[in-house]
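User: Show me an example of a complex going from sequences to structure tokens.

Assistant: Sure. Here are the input components:
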Amino acid sequence: MKPPHHESVLSRAARILEAFSSDEPALTVSEIARRTGLHVATASRLVGELTAHGFLSRDEDRRVRIGVRLWELVVRASPALSLRDAAMPFMEGVHDVVGHHVQLAVLEGEEVLFLERLSAPNAVINYTRIAGRLPLHASSSGLVLLAHGPATLKERVLAGELTAYTPATPATPARLRALLAEVRRQGYAYCPGYVHDDALGIAAPVRGADGTVVAALSVIVPNDRSAQAIVPVVRTAARGVSRVVETSAARGTAAG
Amino acid sequence: MKPPHHESVLSRAARILEAFSSDEPALTVSEIARRTGLHVATASRLVGELTAHGFLSRDEDRRVRIGVRLWELVVRASPALSLRDAAMPFMEGVHDVVGHHVQLAVLEGEEVLFLERLSAPNAVINYTRIAGRLPLHASSSGLVLLAHGPATLKERVLAGELTAYTPATPATPARLRALLAEVRRQGYAYCPGYVHDDALGIAAPVRGADGTVVAALSVIVPNDRSAQAIVPVVRTAARGVSRVVETSAARGTAAG
């Protein structure tokens, strides 16, 4: 995609940062140019400037990465850090008992964004990653966040494309609508094989001081009937996190 | 501090990001202007642009924060994420057994930068934070990283200011030099009361595929003699992380 002509430096910088991903955290300048549609000379000059300010850094082999200084600035004042801090003791507890994957996610645009994930070696397959995204309709976290999300968002998602990842994915508006009502009624989402046949997600809402749902706490475990016993563990942990989030809000600490 | 006259947009953007901290993750535009030395009008225009690109976001009460989109871009391709992923199972294990604080840190400039921290409720006092820094000479992680760091860095730190946080802090060049030799010889740092009278740090090196020290794994526990028993736990975990980092490097996965 060619950039617009009089594009601002910040817009170009944003596109350069977007060129990196978890699969490709290191890129050459020509790869950056190709991905952003910038001329190599422009990309090279901008990479130089961004490196000078610590936004990017260069390996010995001249490959470019996100800079540790930028990571530091963003993470230390991160909007996610206080929520994550509140959740971690509970997530660790669930992880000790359940194993596999324990995750914390928030609504971001029309997708789920994962803030944190604890995984055991040899855990069941799971597509989530820290700072990774999944669609709202297919994942247990997404269903919890959508069920408690704005009505306008619900309508947009119901009217949009509902990809079926497996035969079990809720991929019709009628089924998704019924499922969202069920998630609200029962207080959690239980999703056998929605994203992958072998995996089952269970998610429960984390609420802020005013009772609104601010996040979803979830586990991904093998897709079998024994998973039902894990539901109360997830619900209890999510309530515990909500309690801490409320208390920090009351103390005046930023909680989101 | 007044900015230089023909300062670039990126340089100003960097100073705006630097204005946020873990203590103050949300600022008004006039606070940003005050902290960066920019005119309010300039700060306001830049905050607008940075918000449009997702670098910053605004609360309902108009306070400005680091943007979730920027967090996502930086964390998903973070230079720290693969090291953190390798370390987390071991850190969780140590945290289950030892409690208090378990941390992962790297050398950044002339300081320790903490990538990850697990903390128990009611743990002993600890000044480290995720994406926070400590001086090299006073913390157990810093001593491990400095002991195995470049000779030039060692000389600069030995010639620089060595702040004494407590009577126990190694605050003279002679004592620090002896301590660094000891850390190298014994394979870990044992630091009773160096940063705070009540706390004791124990750190061990994490090595990359080529044997160089890439990080320090540490615990902060109460400052009493029972801490000595924790040394083998920390050393074993740090060796485990090194093994995983080596293996991922051999498989071609980015390991730093």
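The lines above are the inputs; the final block is the predicted structure for all two components together. The CA atoms of residues 110 and 136 of chain A lie 7 Å apart.
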